[in-house]
């Protein structure tokens, strides 16, 4: 069975160009990611105007597995091929990674994307999707798939921390902003390029050594500016789900649980569109409740939600609120009602227990009517 991981959107509150400068510092190795032993550039091409760059790397990774597995497979390191497609004009970086080792037995495909925030150009978004398919691995296919996805999800947590770390390092060096790529700014004479490098405190030799780095390709002029501090609102009626929203409104979730929530939302969205394009997809709080009820099994949670929606339709639950009329006795003698929400967003129902004749209300309106009152 193919294992899939899909992350929510991670948001860096820094411009795309600064994030790219920090991203380049991850290579060839960085102490924050000890699993990566080495990375060698096998191909590196840049377009004539400098706006596009394609980089291929061959990465050497340490095998993090129990001793028994290492003895069975007979290797301590594995190799991956990574392809980066940087477009400074569109402000996007697409990354594809596949395994070279055991490629006939295992298929691993990872696709990551950095791009400018659609609502705030001074922020950067990141998302990733990965699949793991073990076809034949000495009879340990199922165990290896589970272990592989668990370790992969743990590794993804470090990605944002590493970028944040290198951004802090850049700021310590006085680099708090990198200018965006400009078409007319890329055509310079050698004299102008030398003057620019010298004016920034960099020797011509140092500028030449850094010419292949993304931070220099983006711009040769560094200035200090303050970044935006207020996050624009993200609409919740689409499939965009960012990590900050999860932490604030959904609680602490593990990377695998976040991935299940993203996949579950897409599954329900596709099913709703196929059956009835006018139906609204439940919000993330509702979806998470169904996922937790079925131990984050997407198939079981989908079945449970479909049965629930079917029951609501059969009993016209969604029409109760619009059709319900409060009995006269309740309006006069029932001292309670809904009153906004608490600080955590939960609805509040205020009830003056000392002034309520419970037996009289039950005798007058009946238990069903009283239940409808507190339900709607």
Automatic annotation (TrEMBL):
Instruction: Return the Low complexity bias intervals.
Output: 193-213
Q: Which domain of life is it from?
A: Eukaryota
Q: Output the InterPro entries linked to this UniProt entry.
A: CRAL-TRIO_dom_sf, CRAL/TRIO_N_dom, CRAL/TRIO_N_dom_sf, PRELI/MSF1_dom, SEC14/CRAL-TRIO_domain
In terms of SUPFAM superfamilies, this protein maps to: CRAL/TRIO domain, CRAL/TRIO N-terminal domain
PRELI/MSF1 domain spans which residues?
Answer: 2-175
Please give the residue ranges the record annotates as the region Disordered. 186-213
Q: Name a Pfam family for this protein.
A: PRELI
Protein's recorded name = PRELI/MSF1 domain-containing protein
Q: Which organism is it from?
A: Culex pipiens pipiens (Northern house mosquito)
């Amino acid at each position: 069975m193919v294992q899939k991981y899909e992350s929510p959107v991670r948001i860096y509150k820094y411009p795309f160009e600064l994030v790219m400068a920090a991203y380049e510092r991850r290579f060839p190795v960085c102490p924050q990611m000890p699993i990566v032993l080495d990375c060698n550039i096998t191909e590196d091409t840049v377009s004539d105007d400098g706006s596009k760059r394609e980089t291929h790397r061959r990465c050497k990774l340490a095998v993090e597995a129990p001793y028994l597995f290492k003895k069975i497979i007979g290797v301590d390191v594995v190799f991956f091929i990574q392809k980066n497609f940087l477009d400074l004009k569109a402000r996007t970086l697409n990354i594809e990674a596949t395994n070279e080792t055991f490629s006939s037995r295992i298929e691993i495909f990872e696709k990551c994307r950095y791009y400018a925030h659609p609502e705030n150009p001074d922020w950067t978004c990141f998302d990733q999707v990965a699949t793991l398919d073990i076809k034949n691995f000495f009879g340990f296919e199922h165990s290896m798939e589970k272990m592989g996805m668990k370790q992969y999800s743990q590794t993804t947590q470090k990605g944002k921390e590493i970028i944040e770390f290198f951004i802090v390092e850049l700021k310590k060096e006085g680099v708090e902003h990198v200018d965006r790529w400009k078409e007319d700014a890329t055509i310079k004479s050698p004299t102008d390029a030398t003057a620019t490098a010298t004016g920034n405190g960099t020797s011509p030799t140092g500028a030449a050594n850094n010419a292949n780095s993304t931070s220099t390709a983006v711009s040769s002029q560094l200035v200090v500016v303050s970044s935006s501090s207020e996050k624009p609102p993200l609409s919740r009626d689409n499939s965009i789900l960012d990590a900050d929203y999860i932490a604030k409104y959904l609680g602490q979730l593990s990377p695998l649980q976040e991935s299940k929530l993203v996949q579950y939302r897409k599954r329900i969205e596709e099913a709703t569109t196929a059956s009835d394009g006018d139906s609204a997809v439940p919000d993330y709080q509702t979806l998470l409740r169904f996922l937790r009820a079925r131990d984050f099994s997407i198939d079981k949670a989908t079945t449970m939600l479909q049965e629930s929606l079917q029951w609501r339709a059969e009993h016209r639950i969604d029409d109760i609120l619009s059709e319900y009329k409060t009995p006269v006795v309740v309006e006069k003698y029932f001292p309670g009602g809904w009153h906004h929400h608490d600080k955590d967003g939960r609805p509040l129902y205020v009830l003056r227990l000392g002034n309520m004749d419970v037996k009289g209300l039950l005798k007058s309106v009946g238990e069903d009517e009283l239940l409808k009152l507190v339900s709607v």
